[in-house]
Amino acid sequence: MHTRLPSPTFNDISWTTQLDDAIQCNNLAQMWQLVQIHADQDEGTRQLVDRIPRMTHQINRRTYFSELFLMPVIVWGDSDAFENSSCWREDYACVDEVLLSWFPPPTYTMIFHGLRSFDHLGSWQPAIIRQHLQRAIGSTSVSKIRYTVELIKLPLMAPRLGFATMVLTSKLGWPVLPGARPDLDHRLRQVIAYALHNTPGSQVPIPIALPPDRLKDAVTRGVVLWLEQLHHACPILGWSTSPHAKSADVVVITLRLDSEPSWTQFAVRNHHIGLEGLRSILLQLQIMAPNLEQAKDA
């Protein structure tokens, strides 16, 4: 008589340990292999996205919890705010002060110099994110990591997306964002927007800043806002998506614009935004323009 063997159970503790090891070793292929064998694909992806930008360390036997946060900023084409140290240096004190007053007092905040353009952020592998965390906690083992930046080709006056980068550290557990505070949020957005608007009185629109958020939410909200502003400036006529030829982690989004250049591409990384973030971005595109692949199939 045939006896059915019990189905193997999923060992969450063992899986989590292996995932943490893969993150420590920057083995992105192994990270996604572990996600694939998780009993719940959405939960496995969520665990990956949540764990990469977090790090613990100890000082005098006290555990501290650090996490990377980003603040999305939209600026227009001729702005020199990105990767421009002299521009940021003039505005840094103002930005630093308003951000420090916005975060809850028990949290220590380290704000990195300058704005990282989305062109750069789209190239960040887990090792880059972990390097930022190590620098924030004062690790002596931080090494310079090189990566290739694929510039997003846009019309001259099109909006561009960037991020202020910061690491929050708490001794009470993972850092948490303050609750809804409309007045403080409005002041934060106004101060940062005007601080970065270095050509007052010109026809260049004032930058748009969103409050800081966790990596996955900041990137998702930033991309959605950027697509809205881009569609307003030079309408998006169609779009398509495709996996990157060399990495299953990367999704390449192609846009057809009513401008010159008429085509552009940008990449989003699944370990930055997760499945939920990718769905939000694609939903925004569906609202604005037809999917070129679906139109071709029809």
Can you give me a brief rundown of this structure?
The chain has 298 residues and is α+β, with helices and mostly antiparallel strands. It is 42% helix and 23% strand.
Write the layout of secondary structure elements.
Layout lengths: L11 H13 L3 H10 L3 H11 L2 E6 L2 E15 L8 H18 L5 E10 H4 L4 H11 L22 E12 L11 H15 L11 E2 L3 E2 H19 L2 E8 L6 E8 L5 E7 H19 L3 H6 L1
Antiparallel strand pairs: 1-2, 2-4, 2-5, 2-6, 3-4, 7-8, 8-9
Helix pairs in contact: 1-2, 2-3, 3-9, 4-7, 8-9
Q: Mind explaining what this structure looks like?
A:
The protein is α+β, with helices and mostly antiparallel strands. It is 42% helix and 23% strand. It has ten helices and nine strands. The strands form two sheets. Strands 1, 2, 3, 4, 5 and 6 form a six-stranded antiparallel β-sheet that branches. The protein has a three-stranded antiparallel β-sheet with strand order 7-8-9. Strand 7 and strand 8 form a beta hairpin.
